Amino acid sequence: MKYLFGLVLLMILAAGGVMGGAIVVRWTDNMTATVRVGPGERVLPMPAGILPRTGGELTPPREERAAGAKRPNPVKTTPESVAKGKALFTIYCAPCHGPGGKGDGPVTPKFIPPPDVTNATLQKQRTDGFWQHVIGTGGAVMPAYGEALSPEERWHVVNYLRSIAQK
After folding, report:
1. What is the pLDDT of residues 50-93, one digit of tens each?
2. Fewer CB in a 10 Å sphere around the end CB: N or C, the chain?
3. Which residue blocks in the chain are alpha helix, DSSP H?
4. Alpha-helical runs (H) found in 29-119
């Protein structure tokens, strides 16, 4: 009986040791064996035939900016649209681009200066669809506001940009 008790005790201790060893290996080797992927290093394509939850908004990757530039502006340039765009521009764009869009915002000394969006050459070269796409997906240094602004709100900002460029 003494030997049977000792054998059972030895088996329990051995099982506990194996389980404890497995926990130690998992604890110490948790993230060292996985591949490190930094933000923006990999772009996973969406499967074909699906739509975003917001219902059909075209959001091509940055390298397909030309597809976004071909979209026409569905929001008419009205005083209400320009006012909405100005309010949104003040919140999201003015810290970098400045209140008049000249690229003289309060955070400009700390970062790479943003472009003057009222520049006549820039205004002629870029379509409304391009501006709306850049606002949504961001640029080289500009953050993306696709999650903060709906597509319609981005079109209002585009209408405001066009209105301040005419002044």
Report:
1. 655 555 555 445 556 777 788 889 999 999 999 999 999 999 99
2. N
3. 2-28, 65-69, 79-92, 94-97, 120-125, 128-137, 151-166
4. 65-69, 79-92, 94-97
pLDDT at 110 over 90: no
| Rounded distance between C-alpha atoms, residue 60 and residue 52, angstroms | 12
Residue 147 tokens read as 């999650």
Q: Report d(CA 167, CA 165) in Å as an integer.
A: 6
What's the CA gap between 7 and 41, in Å, rounded?
A: 55
Q: At what angle do helices 151-166 and 128-137 cross, to 10 degrees?
A: 120
Mean pLDDT of 27-36: 67
Which residues, in sequence order, are CB contacts of 132 under 8 Å at separation 6+?
68, 71, 73, 151, 154, 155, 157, 158
Q: Which amino acid does the sequence have at 27?
A: W
Over residues 22-49, mean pLDDT = 70
Of the candidates 64, 94, 89, which has an alpha carbon nearest to the alpha carbon of residue 158?
Answer: 89
